[in-house]
Design goal:
By secondary structure, this protein is α+β, with helices and mostly antiparallel strands. 49% of the residues lie in helices and 19% in strands.
């Protein structure tokens, strides 16, 4: 593949224009080819700098006045009168009853969350993992297999804990690309559901739970690293997983065990 083709692919990935299969293949190249990953990171950094430093010029007052005058000259059709459907008169009482009973609160929370770019990226990685042949690059339920594999791929030591006794067995791990940089992602399961837990450099994240595209997420940080878990589990079950993971890592650190 030529450098020109690589440049087109890098820009398409940065713009979110690749299909899931192509994006997954390209992210594997980013994880394995440092020079290729550096070019992608440079594009992402340049775009971020432009967004933060370049000021958009507002339209001249004369142009705004002309546009307003043109809009005023366009005749407006009268708005059609809406008929109130019978079901609409029942909607508000039904919604109030549902809220009183606590029905669908998790879904309401998820639909009201504001979108953030990092969560978009992690949910996209989760969805690619779901449609791939398997959601991991290394399949293993033993953390002593997963941890060394990640150590060979990345320069950071990743926290890996065994939660099988709590109902969240380890499935394996993979390397995702987040903000142009490779990041370790642990994959756990819960019945027929999958949880992707990505470890990130320590930063300020929107703590607590969020939802996007029907998926739930949990974000938290400890003294060293930040974590984001994404799953198609209900937010309450994902919150349970997050709490168990936090307690397990804290316990092993205080006990001097090698969880990292």
């Amino acid at each position: 593949m030529t450098e020109e083709q690589d440049a087109l692919l890098i820009n398409a990935l940065a713009d979110g224009e690749l299909d899931a299969a192509s994006a997954l293949a390209l992210e594997k190249r980013l994880a394995c080819e440092p020079e290729f990953a550096a070019r992608y990171a440079a594009i992402v950094a340049l775009r971020r700098t432009l967004r933060e430093t370049v000021e958009l010029e507002s339209a001249p007052a004369s142009l705004r006045e002309r546009m307003a005058a043109l809009a005023a000259d366009v005749p407006r059709a009268p708005a059609p009168r809406r008929r109130e459907a019978a079901w609409s008169r029942l909607f508000v009482p039904a919604l109030a009853a549902a809220l009183a009973l606590g029905v669908g609160l998790d879904r309401l929370w998820m639909s009201s969350s504001e979108t953030n770019p990092r969560l978009e990226s992690l949910v996209a990685a989760y969805r690619r993992g779901q449609i791939a042949d398997q959601p991991v690059d290394v399949a293993a339920s033993d953390r002593h297999v997963v941890k060394p594999w990640l150590a060979r791929k990345l320069p950071v030591s990743t926290a890996v804990v065994d939660l099988a006794s709590e109902g969240f067995p380890l499935v394996g791990a993979r390397v995702d690309i987040v903000a142009g940089a490779p990041a370790p992602t642990l994959v756990y399961s819960r019945r027929q559901h999958v949880i992707a837990l990505t470890e990130l450099p320590l930063e300020r994240l929107p703590s607590g739970r969020e939802g996007l595209h029907g998926y739930s997420s949990q974000a938290w940080s400890d003294a060293d690293r930040s974590y984001v878990a994404v799953s198609d589990l209900s937010p309450s079950e994902l919150a349970l997983f997050a709490e168990l993971f936090r307690k397990a890592t804290a316990s092993e650190k205080s006990g001097g065990k090698d969880s990292r």
